[in-house]
Amino acid sequence: MRAAVCTAYGPPEVLQIRTVADPRPRNKEVCVRLFATAVTASDCIVRGLKMRGVYRLFMRAAFGIRAPRRGIIGMIAAGEVESVGRGATSFKPGDQVFGMDGFRAGTYAEKVCWPSSALALRPANLSYEESAAIPYGGLIASFFVRRLGVRKGRRLLVYGASGAIGTSAVQLAVQLGADVTGVCSTVNLELVRSLGATSVIDYTKDDFTEGSGRYDIIFDAVGKRKSAKAMLNAGAALAPGGVSMSVDDAFPRTRRSDLLALKELAESGAFRPVIDRRFPLEEIVEAHRYVDLGHKKGNVIVTISPA
Packing angle between helix 135-147 and helix 164-175, nearest 10 degrees? Predict the structure, then answer.
């Protein structure tokens, strides 16, 4: 099968298209023929070993000393079950599935073998590409929305509201009845409004910490490596008893129940996947270059095989 192999840690060019052996499902695994995946910020961090100090050492220990030991990175799957291993009873060949697995990875390829627990039937009303635009932002946002206690009547500010995690956090919070303010750049204001935000702030013109708004929750969906200086003074915009948290402040533990909930929301029309650009697998280097710029809105999708 074709796959984009990460040959070393470094710039996007370390990704090379090669022919590798097809994977075979082990006990309780299913083999999925992939039609689409996504290039996530996390993929780029792993590829470029973009961590500092002790965290850089931890990444080498966890993923590989000189290159990712698994070779094929990519944590988002959208495709069709081709075969099932012994003990895998949740799916059968022909089932159309989607999901995320940041530990096993392997989705920059035509096929991947994952445990059934990482997958769910994809939304019936969405394409494979649209389905691949849900798990990364949706599952991470689900974790933080729950951890932050977002609920009806709470005033929530989402910093980085136009990214994969931000667009998901806005929509999930709106569904819970929160009053959502989104912070993004000028070109993305209308996008964030269309997702249900009550108000939007253009960070290129205004500093939310200097305004009159006070929030029960401030969620930095960008991460501390890229957040503007405004986040350093986020406490000035908190209401009494309020809380501020960055996506970097906790390691999100994803749940299959959240994936199923996202599927239902997408099928009802209450959750809309946001896609910025699409690239074929052969242009995986260009896809990584684009994500490295740090200005994508929503998700960058890679198409692997025609559905």
Answer: 50
Give the Cα separation of 256 and 262 in Å (integer): 10
Gap between the Cα atoms of 98 and 278, Å rounded: 17
- Could you tell me whether strands 15-19 and 2-6 are parallel, antiparallel, or unpaired per DSSP bridges? antiparallel
pLDDT 10s digits, 118-169: 999 999 999 999 999 999 999 999 999 999 999 999 999 999 999 999 999 9
Contacts of 261 (CB under 8 A, 6+ apart): 142
Cβ atoms of 216 and 157 closer than 8 Å: no
Query: Distance (Å, rounded) from C-alpha 133 to C-alpha 123?
Result: 11
- CA neighbor of 204 nearest in space, from 235, 238, 228: 228
DSSP 22: P
* Domains of the chain as residue ranges with CATH: 2-134+273-303 (3.90.180.10), 136-249 (3.40.50.720)
Beta bridge partners of residue 38, listed in sequence order: 301
Residue 144 to residue 43: CA distance in whole angstroms: 20
CA angle 289, 292, 294 (to 5 degrees): 130
- pLDDT tens digits for 189-217? 999 999 999 999 999 999 999 988 999 99
